[in-house]
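Objective 1b: paired records.
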Amino acid sequence: MRIIIVGRGPFGEKALDALIRNGEDIVGVFCPKNKSGEAMKELADSASIDLFQPEHMRDIDVHEAYRDLKPDLVVLAFVTDILPESLLDIPSIGTICYHPSLLPRHRGSSGINWAVIQGDTRTGLTILWADKGIDTGAILLQKEIDIAPDDTTGSLYFNKLFPMGIGAIVEAVELIKAGDAPKIKQDESLATYEPPCDEKYAGIDWSKPASDVYNLIRGCDPQPGAYSTLGRRKVQFYQAVLLDTAQTTPPGQIISIGDGEVIVAINGGALKVGKMKGEKGAKISADEFAREANLETGMRFGELS
């Protein structure tokens, strides 16, 4: 079975490596020209696999390369481009794609972020048959995991969904080779779609319940970073822990500054913040940030000076 793999970053590189180690016939690798494609490029070169680094997957050169390679299957391993339908029609078997949510829930590019932000307790991954829609294709396989109360988007992806996803891609290819790969239509009545989780959605509303504020912070950790203001300064919050303590302190107000932490009141509890970041500079421990930014107990986030 002739396979093309399209991807980027560590996930694309690990997926390519796993398929090579599994003895698959990889006939072409497509990855970006920038830093996110370097690892895949090096691996493809070392394995003597034809390499293509187009500006966009919709480029005419990509279509011609697909035709020349005559793939049976295309594997999408962390692809941000939307592939044109003309490419999906070329492989004789089809195109499969990794998506880090339990489709049809959380379609879109930020499925992990929104699962955490919305307080889901379960998530997982889907290997789907790509079609012209956004994450709308038939499901080949799914794997579920719990979202722990202290999970962040980062911990879910790097500790769970990344390694599980590599194994799922190999498993999906094995099912296809064996002729046992299902095509389960998604239930549109259960479908949700959210936009990319960017700064527009990362602002903290301190009037919301404690769980909402906490879920937003961990859902935006490490990217895009949930934020509030202090005076006219923007401050981002990371490595937060929800403290179940009764509070009469107004939400957003700094309760204490201790060793490696800043405690902030929220509506129905308190929040221990482990790392903070300003508009400039790196992410640092919360107490170090407090010293550098001259934070004091009693100051309140979200208020303009």
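Objective 1b, second protein:
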Amino acid sequence: MSAEGQRYLAAELAAALGGRLEGEPGDVQVTRLVSPAGAKAGAAEAYVVVAGGEADVAALAAAPRAPALVVAGEGLDLSPLGAVPVARVADTRLALARLTTLLDTRPSPATGERSDRAYAHPTATLGEGVTLHPGAVVMAGARVGDRTAVGPGSVVGEGAVVGADCVLHANVTLYDGVRLGDRVVLHSGCVVGADGFGYAASPTGAVKVRHLGGVVIGDDVEVGANTAIDRGTLDDTVVGAGTKIDNLCQVGHNVRIGRSCLIAGKTAIGGSTVIGDGVIIGGAVSIADHVKVGSGARLAGGTGVSKDVPPGETWAGLPARPYKQWVRGLYLQDRLEEIWRVIKGMDRR
């Protein structure tokens, strides 16, 4: 996160985005990133805005103050805006992501301070510049890497390992034996390393299967608020480097998620499922246990997966099937009445 009051020349922002600069940017210092709607409402400071389409251009044309820089894709007509400086980029979404990093003025949770209301066991190891907020707890034998921040009320369990430059926001719980790589971000309410749902039937009722594995989370993973990642039964549950998991997700025991996956909110992944690299999973997807989802596959929102998905394919529906089959099924379903009338007419003839 950037320090408050970060300022950039419009030309500097264009260069940082790798954009092709059009017009004369001048020497105005940009202090804010705003949406087109925010610009229309009247931004008080010199600002940069990302225009993704004609509606955004119309909103900017109605703004009381022109932007210091407009970031737009090639081909978008910006003539209604007059002589404003423009940075033409290949990917406006990527440009937005980079701008939010450059112009982020939110306070950083990593201050390097250790509150006297935090607790670290004498056998715990804390790296240089570790932040412990009030109510943070680091249990026996745990290791916390350099410049990592442990938020208010968060717990690093016994023997857990947290890498460098990680952020554990408020009320995160890491159970014993969990291992995080570097630059991992866990948002509030995350629970990593709880027992999976495993029981054996017996004449006297359910007998708990104790989960003796752990959880291993790779570098640069981000996990959303109130998501749970269960520990493995015997082997570890694994989340690969660069994967991003949204809020309110459930990752069952023994699951193995590959690198650079994107998993949207309310997704539930059953135990022992294997997900390849670069998989994109939409919101509210349910994946049964012991399923394999191949690398590069895509699952549409609301999909219910009960069998293996081949690499690179896009599936949708409940139960899940290849996207083209699902779309055709919807088309035929919408024509059932018409088809039924034809069949009835054939019977009469």
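The longest strand covers residues 47-51. The first helix runs from residue 10 to 16.
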